[in-house]
Amino acid sequence: MIKLEHISKTFGDTGDGVHAVKDVSLEIGDGEIFGIIGFSGAGKSTLVRCINLLERPTSGSITVNGQKLTWMEKQADGKSCMRTVSPQELRQARKKISMIFQGFNLLMQRTCLKNVCFPMELSGVPKAQAEKKALELLDLVGLKEKASAYPAQLSGGQKQRVAIARALATDPKVLLCDEATSALDPTTTNSILALLKELNQKLGVTVVIITHQMSVIEEICTRVAILDGGEVAEEGRVEDIFAHPATDAARRLVYPGGVSAKQYPAGTRAVRVSFNGGTVYDPLIASLAIECGVKVNILGADTRNIDGKAFGTMLLLLPDDPNEAAKALSYIRSQPNITAEEVEYHA
Ligand SMILES: Nc1ncnc2c1ncn2[C@@H]1O[C@H](COP(=O)(O)OP(=O)(O)OP(=O)(O)O)[C@@H](O)[C@H]1O
Questions:
Q1: Closest by CA position to 63, among listed 25, 22, 17, 9
Q2: Are 154 and 146 in contact (CB under 8 A)?
Q3: CA 8 to centroid of ligand 1, rounded, Å
Q4: In what side-by-side order are the strands of the sheet with 309-317?
Q5: Fewer Cβ within 10 Å of end Cβ, the chain: N or C?
Q6: What is the SS3 assignment for 58?
Q7: CA of 45 to the centre of ligand 1 (A)
Q8: More confident site: 23 or 261
Q9: Residue 212: CB within 6 Å of ligand 1?
Q10: Does the interface ipTM go beyond 0.95?
Q11: pLDDT category, 63, cuts 50, 70, 90?
Q12: For the ABC transporter domain, which residue ranges apply (predicted)?
């Protein structure tokens, strides 16, 4: 379990410094794949780097794998001050909290095998034992045949696989992924996300992913926190956030293009249909035509399929005939897992 309590981080002076993270509290369960998403500058990297104290928070308590890494302590003058574990305890704790990065951070003069051996060398694991484990890990990430290749000879996706193998060398319980797929093309991104999901299931490792791409969250996370201006704007199950993005930040991330009615002429009647997790591709438009004899046009759509369920919104043009429009509206409203609102038009 990762428990963050009232984490704040200010760079520079507390007065006029940058408040990168403001009073963030989160709990991430063992074995979860948890996403932290936000726009550039929202404080994602800073927050995730607080989890392993690569960044020391200004205040707040951090507990990882049952161990308090920072905590607040009352002083004689009544003020609270932050305490941290000793450097030696932190080194031990970090073995169980690995991290991968957007830029892979591989050692370019070392072969893939030696890169994976590196954390084991630091821990004093005998060479033969380290090499045996490194080969197993390279096999696990599908790159055994690249053991003696150098990072420069690998593609971006392969480099990230080596970085993942290296991150697993200390048998971590937590894997922090800082924009780990942002430098990769969509196909490679998907293969790395599939690998992370597989490792989560096989090894039970807790995965924390920070990203600015909702598609990454959608692909593998079960829960997500949305950071906005250093604060948690929203937190919850991915499908709930997709169904009902309650904050402006969530709406901008979930539906960046939005579905706007403003581009259509005044007087047009339309209905905004929100899909709240029913079976995907329920043939709403077709059944409107067949069961009600009403034809509607799709003006815009921004829908997503998450685990076989439909989320998102669709803007439908209602027929000019008021009776037909009423019929269509009442049919749409009678459908399960759908909400419908008539859209107001402005000239
Ligand atoms: N070392 C630093 N010194 C001063 N300010 C910093 C430092 N690191 C981050 N910041 C500031 O803290 C804020 C949050 O930055 P952070 O990198 O955590 O955001 P982010 O959400 O990860 O952004 P991005 O997606 O662009 O990486 C930004 O305003 C940034 O300029």
A1: 25
A2: yes
A3: 13
A4: 297-306, 309-317, 270-279, 338-343
A5: C
A6: coil
A7: 7
A8: 23
A9: yes
A10: yes
A11: very high
A12: 2-254
98 and 51 in contact (C-beta within 8 Å)?
A: no
Give exposure, 268-289, as e/b (b: 16+ Cβ within 10 Å).
ebbbbbbbbbeeeeeebbeebe
Q: Which residue's structure tokens are 């948690």?
A: 232
Over residues 152-185, the pLDDT tens digits come to 999 999 999 999 999 999 999 999 999 999 989 9
Residue 347: what pLDDT?
38
20 close to ligand 1 (CB < 6 Angstrom):
yes
Greatest distance between any 2 Cα atoms in the chain: 81
pLDDT in tens, 266-301: 667 788 888 877 765 567 888 888 888 888 888 777
Index of the ligand 1 atom closest to the CA of residue 230 = 14
b/e for 111-149, b at 16 or more Cβ within 10 A?
bbbbbbbbbbeeeebeeeebbebbbebbebbebeebbee
Instruction: Indicate if ligand 1 lies below 6 Å from the C-beta of 18.
Output: yes
Most ligand 1 atoms within 8 A of CB, residue of 7, 10, 11, 211 to mutate: 11
List of long-range contacts for 18-26, beta carbons under 8 Å, 24+ apart: 19/230, 20/46, 20/47, 20/230, 21/46, 21/47, 21/50, 21/57, 21/230, 22/229, 22/230, 22/231, 23/60, 23/231, 24/60, 24/227, 24/230, 24/231, 24/232, 25/232, 26/2, 26/225, 26/232, 26/235
DSSP string, 219-277: HH-SEEEEEETTEEEEEEEHHHHHH---SHHHHHHH-SS----TTSPTT--EEEEEEEE
Distance CA 106, CA 143 (A): 15
Cα–Cα distance, 286 to 304 (Å, whole number): 19
Q: What is the DSSP letter of 33?
A: E
pLDDT digits (tens, 9 = 90+) for 81-93: 999 999 999 999 9
**H/E run at residue 10:** strand 2-11
